[in-house]
Predict the 3D structure of the following.
Amino acid sequence: MSLKIDWSVFDSEWYKKTYHSVLSFFEVDADSDVHNFYEHYGAALQHSPNMFFDEEWYLTRYPAVQTLIASGDYKSGFEHYKNLGFESYSPHWLFDEDYYKRTVLDASSAMLAQNGFRNGYDHYLNQGARSLSQPCLFFDPAFFLKEEPEFIFDVEEGVFIAFLRCLSEPRFQHTRLSWYFDPAWYAKHYADYAAEPAAWCGPLHHYLANTTPENYDPNPYFSEKFYRQTYEDVAAAVVSGAFRSCYEHFIKFGQYEFRQPAPDVKLRQYIENPKVKSEVAAQKYPSVFVHYMAHDGMVNETGYTEEEVEYISKSVYQSMCRARLPLLMRAGIDFTYTSPDISVIIVSHNNFAMTLSALFSLRENYKGSIQLILVDSGSSDEVRHIERYVQGAHVIRALGNIGFLLGCNEALRHVKADFTLYLNNDLELMPHAIDRALARFVKEPKAGAVGAKLLRTNGLLQEAGCIVWQDGGVVGYLRDQMPDIPEANYVRSVDFCSGAFLMVRTALLKELAGFDTDYAPAYFEETDLCVRLNKYNMEVVYDPAVVVLHYEYGTSGNHESGQMMAINFQKFKEKNNTYIATKLQRSEHNIVKARSTRTPTKRVLFIEDYLPFRHLGSGFTRSHDIVTSMVEQLACDVTLYPVFRPIGMVEDTYTAFPDRAEVMWNKGLEDLAAFLHSRPGYYDVVWIARTHNAERLKPILAEFTAALGRATVVLDTEAVAAGRTMQKLALQGETPQHSLEEMLQKEFRAAQVAQQFIAVSAQDAQTLRTLGLEQVNILGHQQQVRRFTPGYTNRHDILFVGAIHDLESPNLESLLWFVKDVLPVLEQILQEDFKLRVCGYINPTIDLPELLAHPRVECVGRVEDISPYYDTHRIFIAPTRFAAGIPYKLHEAAANGLPIVASDILCKQVGWVNGTDIVAAKTGNPADFAQCIKELYKNRELWERVRRNALRRIVVENNTEKYIETIRSILTFSKV
C-alpha cells in the first residue's frame, strides 16, 4: 500500500523554508547539502525534519529521550521516534497518539499493522485527517472551520495538514482550535508569553511546549494548582510522567468522572440540571465541561416548567396504560392461590387502564402466591367488570367512592396472609420489590412495616422514608433529589412511609384495627398507622431495594381538599402528641438526625482511602470487617466516606457493605469540608483509617471543630509503614536518608488530630507508645474458623492470595521474586507436578500473567468466593520480603484450614511458632523457602500439626467476641 503522506522522511523544501536563516549563515543551498546539513548539524540543533514532527516539543515532552541522545543511543528525537517512539509516543503537539487510537480508532497497534499502518499518526495523516477526525483534544477540525469558515484546504489531505502548512502565519496563531484552550485569555493572562510571542507558534504552542506546565492554566475554568492539590492520585501520575499536566488528565478522564476542575466549577452539580443532561446526551456538546464553558456555568432555562414536565409525564404514562390495555384484556392476569405469601389490598375508583397496568406490574414482580383484594370504590368504568380480566381476585364493591382508608379497612377483614401490602393503582413496581420487602421482615424481626423508595414521574424522589417534626408537620425525606444519591440508598428505621407501597405484618395490623377511621376519607391515615406501630415498639423500615415508580395523584388528581388536610393534621397532632413531643424541631440541620428513628449506639464517620471493598485486600478487608461489626453487631449508624472519590457507582457499591451503612460513593476529600458543615454535631466518632489520612484531614478537622462538636477522633494506623520502608530500602541495597526514629516522627507528625489510636499488633502498639501517643488500642483481624474442610490427601498445588494495586506492591514484589528465584529451586527438589495459583484483586493496568510468565503459574485474579481455592490447595505461601502490620491473608488462610509457609518477618509479626503454627522460611532466601515448601507439602504429619495449631490460634486470637468488645471499648471512649 503506497502512502501519500510519510512522517518518516526528510522534507528538504520545508526544511529550507523553516530554517532559511541558519542555512544562509552556513551557505547551504542544494537539496543534498540540506539533508547532509540536517544529519550532521541540524539534528543536534533540535531542528525538525518535516512539518509532521516537532523535535523541540518531543524532547520537552519526553525528557528520557534527551538522556538517550546524551548517551549516544540516538542522534535526535526524530531518530528515536522512527525506531521506537512511534509505537506509543506523540510526534507533535497537535497530535495525541494515545487519544487517537483509544477514542477515534479504538484500535491497537497490532490491528493498525495488519492494515498497513505503522501507528495511529500514520493512519490519521492518510485517512483520518480527510474526515475531520480529531488528532487531539486541542485541535478540532470542525470547530476550527466554524471559527475560520474561509480557510482553504485540499480535501485529499484534510484540514490538519493544511493547517500545519500555515502554522507559523500570525493570522491563525490566536484562532481558537477547540473548546479546551482559550488563546485570547491565555495571551492576556501570561506576561512571559506576551513578552516573546515570536518564539512560539501562538499561545497554544506555548502552553503545550513550555517546560513548566504546572505554572499555566489553559482557560478560566481550570486551575492546575487546585486540581493538583485536590486529586493526589493525579498529581502522582503527573510526577511519574504518565501525564504532562493535570489538565491532560482532566480532559482525557477527569471531566467524564465529574472531577472538579477549579474551586468554583462544580460539574457534578451542574450535570444535575435537566437541560444540561439532555443537551449533552443529545451530543450538542461533547462533555459537561464543554457545556459549562460554552455557557459560563449559567444555563438559560427555557421551555416547559417542572410542573408541566411532570403533567406531561403522567399523561404519557396514562397513554401507555391505554396502549397496553388490549393486550392485558386479551391475555388476562391470574391471581389464583391456595396458601398466599402476601395479601395485597388495592382500592380503585375508575381509571381501568391504569389499574390493570398496576395489577400486571404486581403479577410480574412476584411469582409467588398472592391474595389480591381489590376494592371497587364506586367505579363507573370497566373496573366494575374487572373479574372478566383478572382471575382469582377477591373483589369488594362499594356503592359509592368510599376512599382509600375505608376501602382498605373493609379489605383487611378478608386478609389471609401473614403480610399485607397496601398498594396504590397508579404505580409500577421495579424488579424484585416484593421479594426485597418480604426479605426485610425475615432479616429484621422488629420490623412492623416496610416502605419503598418512591420515584416520581420526573425520575426524582418522592420520598426516601418520611419525617415527623416536633410541631407535628411531616416531610418526605429527600423529595426532588436524585434517586441514586447515597443518603437515599441505605436502610433506615423511620417515622413513616407512604401508603402507596406499605407492607405490614398482618397480625399487628389487625391488632391495631387497620387505619384509624377518624381520618376518613383521607390524609394522615398511613402516618398515624406507622406512628402507632412505632409506639407499639415495632419499627417502620425504609428499604431502598424496594423501588416503586409512583404516578403521584394519578387517580385522585391534584385538587384534594386543603381543608380536609388541615383538619386531619390537627387530629394527628392531638392523637399522637406524646410521640410528637419526642421529635426534633423542624430545622435544615436536624434533617440528618430526624431521618432515622432508631437510636444508634454511636454515629460514626468512617474515612478510608477508598470504599473498603473486601476484594481490594491491603487493609481494606479489615476496614470492611470493622464497619460490618459496627453496623450489625454494635447497632451503630456508620457513614462510609472515601478520601478518593470513586469513579461512578460500581455494581456492588451497596451489596458489598451492610445495608444499614450509608455509603458516600459520590464524595471525596474535596467535598469533606462542606459535608461536615452540613452535619454539625451529628457524629460521635470520626474513625480515620490509615495514618497518612491524618495529615490530609488535619486542616479540615481543625477548621470544622464546631461542626464536629464533641466527636472523638480515632486514628486507626492499620500498619506502621516506617519499618516496611526500611526493609524495602535494605532489600534494594539503598542507604536510608533518615533513621527509623526520624521516619516514624514524620509518619506520625499529624497524629495529634486524634484522641485515640489503634494498632493492628502489640508490636505496632509499642511503637506508638514510644512516640508518646496515649490511648492506644490493639485491633487485629476477625476470623471465623471453618472446621470441616478437606484433608491432606485431597489437596494439590500451592496458593497465593493478595491484592496487587500498583507496581510498587509488596505482594507483586514477592511474587516476582518467588517465580524468578524460588520456583526453579522448588521444581528441582519437589519432583512433583504442581501449580502456583494467584488469587486476588489486580489493578487493570497491570498485566500480571505477562509479569509472572511461567508454565506453573496461573493468575486467577479476583474471585467472588475464595473458599474452593482454600479447600483444594495443599499449602499457602506468603513470600513477602518487606511488610508492615499483620497480613490478613495469613489469618484468612489459617481460618480456612490451609497450612502456611511464610517469610520469617511475617511470622514475627503474627507471633506464631515455626514448625508448630506455621512454617517460617528465611526472608529472601530462595533455597530455604523452597525447602520449607517441600517439607510442608510432602510431610503429612507436619501438615496436619501446623493446620491444627493454626486453627487453635485463630480461635483464641481472632474470635469475634473479643473483636467486637475491642471496637465497643474504642467507640465508648469519651473525649476530655
In short: The first strand starts at residue 333 and ends at 334. Confidence is low (pLDDT under 50) at residues 554-560. The two ends are 80 Å apart (CA to CA).
